[in-house]
Amino acid sequence: MTSTATGPVVLVTGGSSGIGAGVVRRLHADGHRILATSHRHPERAQALLTDLDPAGRTLAFTPADLSAPAGTAEDLVERAVARYGRLDALVHCAATVDITPAAELTAARFTDVLTTNVVAAFLLARAAAAHPHLGAVVFVSSVAARFTGPDSAAYEASKAALSMLTRTLAAEYAPRVRINAVAPGAIDVERTLADPAWPRDMLARRIPLGRVGTPADVAAAIAVLLGDDARYLTGQILTVDGGLALSLT
Predict the structure, then answer these.
(1) With helix as H, strand as E and coil as C, how does the chain read?
(2) 173 has catalytic annotation
């Protein structure tokens, strides 16, 4: 199926839940044509599609396992181009979170986190940048790249690496492609809301803006970075945390 709509085309990974779903909602409202990936939650992808674009004119979901990105990244980019005729932007939201004490963290699990969060980001950006219309890439990093906590060595290392990858690729692909990242803080997503240990109220008290963030908050920042108002921004890591980092420094 080839779309005849004319909005910018964006590939969004991890688009069926959490921040990724917020990005899909925002960019679809802004008039983008979207190919989004879904791996573990096809039912959420279907619900989002039914809610936003049941005819599938400007939104489609495709399965993708980015824990094995070799070949998958290139294939996803080609699927977006085949569907819409071009690719203007990439937003990599897909991530693996592993909260495990270091003494129990296996090499395989450590590698899996790095592969999804960093290697996939690199391969996707490289494949996307091969297309002449690509103008912007946004990675989803985390404040965990700067502030450490217990039992999260793999996740925090991956987000720190992703932040540096953002800067490195930004320098390499300028001036044609702008590459930036957002670093969310405490965000209400399905995973955190389902966790009885999620210290939501405590975090809200520590956040200067007085509340935990939402996927829509992060998506708004990503929309800015993709747009022309950010035409002179590249290699930046935009913290989206309501000021939480101010209480951690």
Answers:
(1) CCCCCCCCEEEEECCCCHHHHHHHHHHHHCCCEEEEEECCCHHHHHHHHHHHCCCCCCEEEEECCCCCCCCHHHHHHHHHHHHHCCCCEEEECCCCCCCCCHHHCCHHHHHHHHHHHHHHHHHHHHHHHCCCCCCEEEEECCHHHCCCCCCCHHHHHHHHHHHHHHHHHHHHHCCCCEEEEEEECCECCHHHHCCCCCCHHHHHHHCCCCCCECHHHHHHHHHHHHCHHHCCCCCCEEEECCCHHHHCC
(2) no
